[in-house]
């Protein structure tokens, strides 16, 4: 025992042989029939098995023995309850985690001189987070407020730790308020968590806060803002060194939903596939963890059975083991079936989006062909007028020439049809034009669309029924209104509005 304790004190690596030695200690302690010694050995055994499914089991056994001997004989008994509460929370057993967490907190006023202040804060966080998972928002807010009150009364000696935990507590209170429909109160608190976490690069807490804010944007159909936040949250989750699979899944699912709403099927499929793969890995990992937990429980019970030499109990445990293993196998099969069903559903939705996109692409192509044909016809009509003008002047019929030169090729009805086709061919043009030109009038709108078709001044003049010099003046006025960058022509600037980027 002292050899292993010495390794913990000096920060030395725990070796596989140490696990074997500590199990031998358990056997020796049972022979001595000393419950207090057995409790200490089980506590040490739990520390050696930290990070495994044995961790909770041996802490529970230590609590059982300490309760039998009397808690007053153990200086750090509250740490056993904390360890069990943490382990149960990590295995998603939130109700039991709360039970052991509250028992841990009950020692706060009994063992004041043995408490680590940060353990107390962490235990409050586990209880608050468990209530949040159970949708008991008032209880969650109460325990996170306890963190704020504690740190306000006795600040942590490390300023970064102080700032981080205040941010976490306020952010979770804000999250609870948002889930209760009190978004105006809760949102600023989540932003505070994001700010405090960012200041010290706590990536897991940054991802948690950003996921909450992204979900709020999605709720109010701000899909571009939501997808941007979810992508940032996913990036931070990837950088975190802590267990953040849940945050990755939330981010990927959110990105997939946004792209579906924005009708971007390729991106929706890409992130949906990432989500499904990660979720499948998580389901398999959970299945493996459950199986590992069962095996650990069986091994633990086997040890207890051997120590107490109760053969009848051993047979019962074996039957239970086989039953549970069968249940785990069935659960794994059901999980895989659900995964495949979800994948087929996503594939079907993607195919529908692709068909819609192809139909829209065809419609845009047809509209652009009509626009190009329209521009070509305009050029041909202008050439025809010029030929007629020369013929008429040669014959001395000036009045007829003048009449032809003043002919307006586009009526209001023609412009209505033209604009409808133009919008389908270039859906981004008019919205972007209106963004850069305040209070755009119809004349400017027509002029810009004809410039976009790469028509010259004379062609535009013939179409609008005005002179080429009037077109030039109108272009200069429009260039001043748009504030075209130095060295760039208004024609090239307007044509750039059609770019998809």
Automatic annotation (TrEMBL):
Keywords carried by this UniProt record: Membrane, Transmembrane, Transmembrane helix
SUPFAM superfamilies linked: C-terminal effector domain of the bipartite response regulators, TPR-like
Highest taxon, organism lineage: Bacteria
Coiled coil ranges: none
Keyword presence, Magnesium: no
Annotated InterPro entries: Sig_transdc_resp-reg_C-effctor, TPR-like_helical_dom_sf, Tscrpt_reg_LuxR_C
Occurrences of domain HTH luxR-type (ranges): 454-481
Transmembrane residue ranges: 323-339
Protein name: HTH luxR-type domain-containing protein
Organism of origin: Pedobacter riviphilus
